[in-house]
Design a protein that fits this description.
single chain, 423 residues, alpha/beta, Alpha-Beta Plaits, Aminopeptidase, 13 strands, globular
Length: 423
């Protein structure tokens, strides 16, 4: 298996984006946070991983290290080189990515859920990726073949290819709901009163590249026609898109490259078109890592006029999560931390549609010998602790529907969307 992973990495260097951008020489570094350091870092448009316990974690290229040295910013190397994992945790039986889903495995398992529970589960193709992979939504409702006047909520996963755990949590949420509908009275009540939409994999092309060639790939697979590849899908939404070069980048070499235009990427167009056709009351977008619940705004440090209720919902989700495994997810305003985002999912869904919107950053929350990825054994415990938060948010949508005056949309944009394709 180790030889296979090395071979796959070599193939990626020869024929893929690695031939144009040498990502395999990058390091994860840790920088101690200070005001002086922050002023220097904000000018550099680095690939930021997280801020935790007074430290900032960054994926750094050799040029980044040179620039840090020139600014006299001290750093510690946390791990060396980003080749596919060589720890031997993957098995032949479960594939190169182990118990984590690849695109074809997710397609297979979603179809199996819909086949096994046809009365409450539908798989719907909301659009195609750049490389013509389907972007699947799992819709769960007690009368799934009908359009009903009831609450609606959406859960998204894997905008960023390297965040494999962000596929598993929303997928397992769908699996849990359909498998427990017939035996759990609370699940039955939630499914009967809410239209639940789950898109586990927004970025299928990037995920496949991350699995087979370069584990730390983040963006989609857009050929930028200048020797660079990829757009950061979580910077491609049109709310505050391109507001500044701190929350996203106009440079296609950047890991937070926002694309040439808002909604330039078909993967994000699919999410947009679904919103045009549905009336969602809340959104969660799963990411990793840092073990925190983030809410708008991300483009500014300033609070929104719904700060109190956004924090209240996020804090309640945190409270119901912690008892499961003893892990604490702090509820925080996204822009109040180290770095800004613009053109991201939650600012868009909150700013355009006025609904409470959350980025849940999944574990880990610290560096352990440079390991920033989840083991296969992490999958179920991480889902288990996130399940109560998802159930709480579904119930919140039910309890506040249809009267949500505090969340009346700021402005609804009615673009022409694609027709949804039921599989």
């Amino acid at each position: 298996m180790k030889k296979l992973l090395i071979l796959l990495c070599f193939i990626g260097i020869v024929i893929g984006p690695l031939g144009a951008q040498n990502y395999t020489d990058r390091e994860i570094i840790r920088i101690e946070k200070s005001q002086e350091v922050l002023e220097g870092l904000l000018e550099m448009n680095l690939d930021l991983l997280m801020e935790k316990d007074g430290n900032i974690y960054v994926v750094a290229s050799p040029n980044d290290l040179i620039a840090l040295n020139a600014k006299n910013i001290q750093y510690e190397i946390e791990s060396h080189k980003f080749y596919p994992r060589e720890q031997g945790v993957f098995t032949i039986q479960s594939g190169v990515n182990g118990d984590f889903h690849s695109y074809p495995e997710l397609e297979r398992d979603l179809m199996a859920l819909a086949d096994a529970y046809p009365d409450i589960a539908q798989v719907i193709d909301i659009g195609d990726s750049l490389e013509q992979r389907n972007i699947y939504a799992l819709r769960i409702s007690d009368n799934v073949g009908q359009q009903e006047n009831k609450a609606s909520v959406i859960f998204l996963g894997c905008h960023h290819a390297r965040e494999w755990i962000s596929v598993e949590v929303p997928y397992l949420l769908g699996k849990y709901l359909v498998e427990n509908y017939g035996t759990d009275a609370e699940v039955k009540r939630l499914v009967a009163n809410c239209d639940i939409w789950i898109i586990p994999l927004v970025n299928p092309d990037g995920l496949e590249y991350s699995i087979h060639f370069y584990r730390y790939w983040r963006k989609n697979m857009r050929n930028n026609l200048n020797g660079t590849y990829g757009v950061d899908l979580n910077r491609n939404y049109d709310y505050k898109w391109g507001l500044d070069n701190l929350g996203s980048s106009p440079n296609s070499t950047s890991e937070v490259y926002r694309g040439q235009n808002p909604f330039s990427e078909p993967e994000i167009q699919g999410v947009r078109d679904l919103f045009v056709q549905k009336n969602f009351q809340a959104l969660v977008s799963y990411h990793s890592f840092s073990q925190v619940i983030l809410y708008p705004w991300g483009y500014t440090k300033e609070a929104s006029d719904k700060e109190d209720i956004l924090f209240e919902i996020g804090d309640k989700m945190s409270q119901v999560m912690e008892p499961v495994n003893g892990r604490y997810y702090a509820a925080e305003r996204a822009g109040a931390g180290f770095y800004f985002t613009n053109g991201d999912t939650t600012d868009w869904s909150f700013g355009v549609y006025g609904i409470p919107s959350y980025t849940i950053e999944l574990p880990p929350n610290s560096s352990i010998k440079g390991e920033f990825f989840n083991a296969e054994s992490d999958i179920q415990p991480i889902f288990n602790e996130n399940l109560p938060a998802a159930l709480y948010l579904i119930d919140w949508c039910i309890q506040t529907y249809p009267s949500q005056s505090q969340y009346s949309p700021f402005h609804i944009r009615r673009q022409q969307g694609k027709s949804l394709r039921i599989k």
